[in-house]
Design a protein that fits this description.
Structural class: alpha/beta
Strand order of the largest sheet: 3-2-1-4-5-6-9
CATH topology: Rossmann fold
Number of helices: 9
Largest sheet: 7 strands, parallel
Shape: globular
Bound molecules: NADP nicotinamide-adenine-dinucleotide phosphate
Oligomer: single chain
Radius of gyration: 18 Å
C-alpha cells in the first residue's frame, strides 16, 4: 500500500476547489507538507493565504457560475496539456450550507448551493475527465456525514451531500477498469468557516454532546490523503462519525429524519435562547 507521499509522487497536476479556507486549505497544506512536484491549482473566489509564497496557482473562480467554471476548466485543460507525464488529482471541495426552517431561508441562496455543491462538482469532473482518463488520476469529492440521512433545518444542504456521496460511489464503479477512480470524503462537524457561512450563531460542536464530535480541518485532510493512498472509494472521518453514519443509513429513514428534526430543533432553540 503506497504512503500519501508515494502516491503524490505520481501526480503531475493537483486541482483543489475551495482552498482559501477550512478543509480545502488543509488539503493543500497537507499536500505541501507531504511534498509534491505537481502543479497545485486552487479554484475559489479568494486566493488562499497559503499561496502567498507563489508555490501554487490560484484561478479566481465563482464555481456557482457555469460560465466562470467553463473558463476555469479550459485553463486547467491547458495546464494539464503542458504538464509532464503524471496523474491528475481533482479535489471537489468547495461548498456551503444554509441553516434554518426551509420557508425562512433565502430561495436564491438554496439554488446557488445546488449550483456549487452539486452542479459544479459534476460539471468540473466531466469537463476534466477525458484528460484524466488519458493520464490516470482520481476525483475526490467532499460529501459529509449529512449525506447518510435527511437533515431537517439543513434540508437542501444534506440533500446536496447525499447526491455527492451517491454520485461519487457510482462514478467509481463506472470508472472501474480505467486509470481513474473516485473517493467520497464524509467529514462530520469540522472547525472551519462553514458554520458561520451557514448561518449558525454558535457552531454546534461548541455545545453539549456535539462537542465530542469536533474535528480540525487538518485532521480531515490527513484522513483524506490516507484514504487516497489506500485506494478507498469512501472515507468517513473518525469512529464517532462512522457510528453516526451507520445509524443514519441503517435505521428506518422516516424515524431517523424525525429524530434528526428533534435534535436540530433543540439546537436551534438553544441558539435563539443565547441571543
Ligand atoms: N465544516 C464542516 O463541519 C463540514 C462537514 C462536512 C462537510 N463539509 C464540506 O467541506 C467542504 C469545505 O467546507 P469547509 O468546512 O472547509 O468550509 P469553509 O471554511 O467555509 O470553506 C468553504 C470553501 O468553499 C469555497 N467556496 C464557497 N463558495 C464558493 C464559490 N461560489 N465558488 C468557489 N468556491 C467557493 C470558499 O472559498 P471562497 O469563499 O474564497 O470562494 C472556501 O474556500 C464543503 O463542501 C462542506 O460542505 C464541511
Amino acid at each position: 500500500m503506497p504512503t500519501p507521499s508515494e502516491y503524490l509522487n505520481h501526480a503531475a497536476v493537483i486541482i483543489v476547489t475551495g482552498g482559501s479556507s477550512g478543509i480545502g486549505c488543509s488539503i493543500i497544506k497537507a499536500i505541501k507538507t507531504v511534498g509534491t512536484n505537481a502543479v497545485v491549482c486552487n479554484l475559489s473566489r479568494s486566493k488562499p493565504d497559503i499561496f502567498s509564497d507563489k508555490t501554487g496557482l490560484h484561478i479566481s473562480t465563482d464555481l456557482s457560475s457555469a460560465s466562470a467554471l467553463q473558463t476555469a476548466a479550459e485553463r486547467l485543460e491547458l495546464i494539464i496539456d503542458e504538464a509532464p507525464p503524471g496523474k491528475v488529482l481533482l479535489f471537489n471541495n468547495s461548498g456551503f450550507g444554509d441553516y434554518g426552517r426551509i420557508e425562512e431561508l433565502d430561495r436564491c441562496k438554496q439554488l446557488t448551493m445546488i449550483d456549487l455543491n452539486v452542479k459544479a462538482v459534476v460539471d468540473l469532473t466531466l469537463r476534466l475527465l477525458p484528460k484524466m482518463l488519458e493520464r490516470g488520476g482520481v476525483v475526490v469529492n467532499v460529501a459529509s456525514t449529512s449525506a447518510f440521512q435527511p437533515t431537517p433545518f439543513l434540508a437542501t444542504y444534506g440533500a446536496t451531500k447525499s447526491f455527492v456521496l451517491n454520485w461519487t460511489l457510482a462514478l467509481n464503479e463506472d470508472l472501474r477498469g480505467t486509470s481513474v477512480r473516485a473517493l467520497a470524503v464524509c467529514p462530520g462537524p469540522t472547525r472551519s468557516n462553514f458554520f458561520k457561512s451557514a448561518g449558525f450563531e454558535t457552531p454546534p460542536m461548541n455545545s453539549g454532546a456535539n462537542a465530542t464530535l469536533d474535528m480540525t480541518s487538518d485532521q480531515v485532510a490527513e484522513y483524506t490523503l490516507n484514504a487516497l493512498a489506500k485506494g478507498r472509494s469512501m472515507v468517513v472521518t473518525g469512529w464517532k462519525n462512522k457510528c453516526i453514519a451507520f445509524f443514519g443509513s441503517k435505521f428506518p429513514i422516516v424515524a431517523v429524519t424525525r429524530i434528526g428534526g428533534v435534535i436540530l430543533r433543540k439546537l436551534r432553540l438553544e441558539q435563539h435562547r443565547k441571543h
